[in-house]
Structure formats: structure tokens, C-alpha cells
Amino acid sequence: MSVTTPKGPQLAVLPTAAENDTRQGAQVLQPSGWPMPKGYANGMAAEGRIVVTGGVIGWDAEERLADGFVAQVAHTLSNIAAILAEGGARPEHLVRLTWYVVDMDEYLTNLKELGKIYRAVFGAHYPAMALVQVVRLVEKAARVEIEATAVIPR
Q1: pTM reported for the whole predicted model
Q2: How many other C-beta atoms lie within 10 A of the C-beta of residue 76?
Q3: Which residue from 5, 39, 44, 77 puts its CA 20 to 30 A from 112's CA?
């Protein structure tokens, strides 16, 4: 019988919840030797009750879109926080965000401002994220749409 050593990076699991917390929180999956990502996680692991959103855009209760990309992102993130709260989830329960933008350059040009807005709504918790440029969104004036997945620990 031969024993093989796995090739490739080893996986590190980093807890994001306080160590004294009796509930198991989401864990960041960071392969050893990989550079730490800025503003997102490579992967997440969690157990518990799943809360998901549909594609959320930056409009208010009267379906009026905020003016401009940055304002729409701010309102979109606030809308996601409200949906999570409705399901009993908090920002630290987020395990995944998928962003759909109509202009990648618009996103990249505003990174610093977007980071401030993100931290104001969700704090310094960065789940796994994907960013996709699309031709357009269902609402023609929408500049961004975000889907969220959260897991509330048992």
C-alpha cells in the first residue's frame, strides 16, 4: 500500500466568528500559500439555515432607482441587509455575493467609494464574491444587481 501526498496548495480554514462564540460561524476558506484577497474571500463554509435573496437592485419601496452607479450600489446593499434581517440573518452570516454590473469600468473606477459603502452596510465581513458584466438588467436604468446567500448558524 502506498501513501500519496496531495499536490497543490493546502487548505486553511479561518473562522470569522468570535472564538468564544458557542455557535459555529461561517469560515473563510483560504488555501495556504495563496495571497489574501482584498474585499472578498476565495471561499466560505457554513452550516445552518440558508437565507437567499433574488437579484436585488438599488430602488426604494416605490420602485424608484437611486441616481447613478454608486448610489444604486449603496441602496442595493441596504436592501440586501433589510432582506437578510427579515430572514433573521445579519451581514456576518453572508457567505456569497454575486454582483451583476452593466459597466465593469464603472465598478473599477469607484472601488474606493464602493469599499466605504460596503463597510458602512456590512462591516469588515467579506464573503465569497463574483463580479459579472452583463449587457443589461431587467430594469433598464439599473446599473447593478446583487444576489446574496447567508447561512445562519445553528
Answers
A1: 0.81
A2: 26
A3: 44
Alpha-carbon distance of 69 to 141, in angstroms, equals 10
User: Which residues 6+ apart lie within 8 Å of 115 measured at CB?
Assistant: 39
DSSP 10: P
Nearest by Cα to 121 from 151, 89, 90, 77: 77
Confidence of residue 18 (pLDDT cuts 50, 70, 90): very low
Which residue bears the cell 444576489?
147
Backbone angles phi, psi at 64, to 5 degrees: -100, 125
Mean pLDDT for 116-129 is 96
Q: What integer is the mean pLDDT of 13-37?
A: 67
Q: 3-class SS at 41?
A: strand
β-strand partners of 51:
150
Say which residues have a Cβ less than 8 Å from residue 49's Cβ, sequence separation at least 6: 88, 151, 152, 154
- pLDDT of residue 76 exceeding 90: yes
Locate 148 and state its grid cell: 446574496
Helix/strand/coil percentages in the chain, nearest 5: 25, 30, 45
